[in-house]
Amino acid sequence: MRKVTDCVSWVGVTDWDRRLFDSLIPLPDGTTYNAYLVRGSEKTALLDTVDPDFSETLLAALDSVARLDYIVSHHAEQDHSGTIPLVLSRFPEARVVVTAKAKGLLMDLMPIAEERFIVVNDGDTLSLGDKTLRFIHTPWVHWPETMVTYLAEDKVLFSCDFFGSHIAASELFVRDQCRVHEAAKRYFAEIMMPFRSVIAKNLEKLADCDIAMIAPSHGQIYGEPTWIMESYREWVSAPPKNLVTLPFVSMHGSTRIMVDHLAEALSGRGVEVELYNLAVTDIGKLAMSLVDAGSVVLGVPTVLAGPHPLAAYAAFLANALRPKARFLSIVGSYGWGGKTVETLAGMIPNLKVEVLDPVLCKGVPRQETLAALDRLAEAIAARHLEAGFENR
Ligand code: FEO
Q: Is the pTM of this model over 0.90?
């Protein structure tokens, strides 16, 4: 148990080893599952629990707690809720404080008796005596049932996944802002980017709170929270940048020649470009690039008459993440024919983009293909200029 404020203690777990979340998301720096104990003059509340793999660690941290009145469950995903049943067994008097949607999800996911729940509406408060918890519904950070808690007397916001970052660290509070900025952006990109408009509303709702500290459920605590809230506003609401994200795969080098030529042509026209070789890339890095990209170009060879499966995966991912990008194109090489462009185009219905003429070539790219790539670079640079996309 570690002190956060006079009445708040951290009772979480640092998971230095974890490298994958949801069997999908890379965690290059591990993560934490933060749970917080808030002691008022009359009642005690536990805010979230930890991943069930670490249940025993949390229960050991709670050894010195004689009575627990409430478990606030901000979010039903098991990395935060998975130890609730065991905590309820240890503290038979405790009740689980949730949104109505979270109650339904938790009952779907784990054995918790219905009478153990207290459902709270948006703006409801719960007194712990001299401390007051205010619950603010914040859907889609990261599931639809999510809420956050504001501890008014201490000006602390307990934000669960919102503002979180996957970093395992020995320090409880943020020291290296650059490192946390990158990890928090990665986290936003991977799970929250598709819900930007709802998140913008959530940020507006928080404007009523005087927030001196943000205590998320992953990563370090923000002792100075203004910059992370400003970063979220930028990621959610700012126009895209003068940047092309270029995920690609190449089998025998032809598509790679095209990608490299296009990258140089873009760069020569003042457009920043980021290449992601899908055979080796960290998809978290690709997702982060998509937060800012004004355009996306897929570099894709044709395999078995369709797009290379890694490029299809990238298209599926981009469609799911719904980035802000306004322009899209496809470049790549084929051997004898196929429906690569048609197949990929059918995979991205969520992207509200203008599709610029694809550049495909048979075999190794020759002069006419390189000239077509130059024209594509010219078209992208002109579109970015017209749209007013600024450099990062
Ligand atoms: Fe950290 Fe969406 O759970």
A: yes
